[in-house]
Design brief:
Elements lengths: L1 H47 L3 E3 L11 H8 L6 E6 L4 E6 L9 E3 L6 E3 L5 E3 L8 E8 L7 E7 L3 E7 L5
Antiparallel strand pairs: 1-2, 1-5, 2-3, 4-7, 5-6, 7-8, 8-9
């Protein structure tokens, strides 16, 4: 009886901790997938010495040119579109984004579209300045602290992920 009572108490304590660890790992994995997609877009642009775009989850944020239109057709957030030839504006490949962005995870706000040039510099779509700021904020409302993973780009090339706390819409 004592063994059963101890086991029951340990189970009651362990289940919430296990759920928190699982959610935290899902947040980190999804953020890492998006960071990987950003780096894939940059490498594709440098490799072909042309443009590649990390796509937004909102079609209007992707732009209206060839890359933006291809991004808008991409089925998942964080997709990468490569441009085959800048002279013909032909898209070469669309790589699917993250499929791990499912309930209870969500995007706080929108994912920022980033276009990389042949030198690997990222720029917000429709801007000539280099990208500096938040690209995506992935969160969950099922945790009260450390429930956000904020992915940012600094000076168009440095990708960072930060863990923060706050309300999740």
């Amino acid at each position: 009886m004592i063994t059963l009572a101890v086991a029951a108490i340990l189970t009651v304590i362990a289940i919430p901790s296990f759920k928190r660890i699982t959610l935290s790992n899902r947040l980190s994995t999804t953020a890492n997938d998006l960071v990987d997609a950003i780096n894939t877009a940059r490498m594709a642009a440098v490799k072909r010495n042309t443009f590649a775009q990390f796509c937004s989850d909102v079609a209007a944020n992707n732009g209206g040119d060839t890359l933006g239109t291809a991004c808008s057709a991409a089925p998942l957030p964080g997709a990468v579109v490569e441009l085959e030839d800048a002279a013909t504006n032909a898209t070469l490949k669309i790589q699917a984004g993250t499929s791990k962005l499912t309930t209870p995870l969500q995007v706080s706000g929108t994912i920022q579209a980033v276009r990389f040039d042949g030198q690997g510099l990222g720029r917000p779509v429709g801007s000539t300045g280099v990208m500096t700021g938040v690209v995506a904020d992935i969160c969950t409302s099922q945790m009260s602290s450390d429930n956000h993973r904020v992915i940012s780009i600094t000076t168009g090339t440095i990708v960072t992920t930060a863990t923060t706390s706050g309300s999740c819409p």
